[in-house]
Amino acid sequence: MLIPLLCALPWVLVPLVLVWRMRDATSLDTFSPRAPDDAPHVTVIVPARNEARNIEGCARSILASTYPRFDLIIVDDHSTDGTGDIARRIAADDARVRVLSNPDLPAGWFGKQWACHNGAQGAAGTLLLFTDADTRHGPELIARSVAAMRAGRSDLLSVVGEQTLVGFWERLLQPHVFSLILLRFGGPGDVSRATNPVDKIANGQFMLLTRAGYDLTGGHDAVRDHVAEDLRMAQEWCRHGLQVDFVMGRDFLSTRMYESLGEIVRGWGKNVYAAGRDTFTLGPVGQGVLRVIFPLPSLWEIAPAVMAVLGWAGIVSHGWAVWGSAVYVATSCFWAVVYRWARQPVWYALLHPLASATIFYICARAAWKGDAVEWKGRAYTSPSATR
User: Fold this and answer.
1) Which domain holds residue 320?
2) Are 201 and 341 in the same domain?
3) pLDDT tens, 67-81?
4) Could you read off the pLDDT of 44-56 as tens digits, one per residue?
């Protein structure tokens, strides 16, 4: 009995590491909601392709900001669902809003980067804020973010907001995916302190940065063919000696990324492998090995549950049943804490083997596709930055 329980210790220690890595997360709560007298001009840029269900809510939330000096550029990226019409109606009622029609996509560019690039060309602000169309901004978000940027002397400040989770699959899977990201990069404090570019990451849902830094690093042109442009930009800025900071802002920024299992599979399938390769320094052989082993960490939480069932069914030894049950209970307790922190029903923790099995499928599917990426009706090739 003792040996199986001792063998369960790694499944206890890894979650403790995750909790420990969130120990010093800086939050926007600690910064002033009042803009200084010399508040810099912020241009908010929203790339939008077929975002009719989101664009009005996003734009209205930005326009409700208490920050005194900002304008909003919405880049309509060849939408076919009326996104541009909605954006132009908003612009007709508010002089702070401009709508740009994105030029045709050139070879070698991803659509989002091309839209952000063209939005930046027409921006007047000394600070640029790139944000996604599926975000919602609190009134104090820009002011607090500018204050945090000044306090940390940041060149690029990225905010981690609340994930709005509604459906079963969103609630089940999203906490698991973000926990994997946390395990790799650590909490916001770890990211802010990192000096190795491969340990930097940003959240493309909210990136506030200096125009000077954007021009120095080449902006979105420098990351035009990488699927996770936010991660790659953070790495590029770090390589140029610029300060990249990460802060929590759950009460000021929210995002509903995906609304169905299909969207989750396609969305994370677009990012997890093609972007994950850029988080390790690997040569061609290492990249080939990574494709094989990339999905395997998801088995970490599947195997114990399977062995527990087989053990209690008498198919394998009793020791396996004890080990698998101990791991399942310990892991369920950890996920109960995670779901509570995510403001979701804690009973989802009992389904963590199902979540891991689904993530295994997403990772395996993405690794099998390799460089091939599909998103919003476009097909791309995303080469590894380490080749």
Assistant:
1) 2-19+281-375
2) no
3) 999 999 999 999 999
4) 999 999 999 999 9
Number of domains in the chain: 2
Same domain, 316 and 342: yes
Domain annotation covers residue 264: no
Residues 57 and 162 in one domain: yes
| CA pair distance 249, 292, nearest whole angstrom | 36
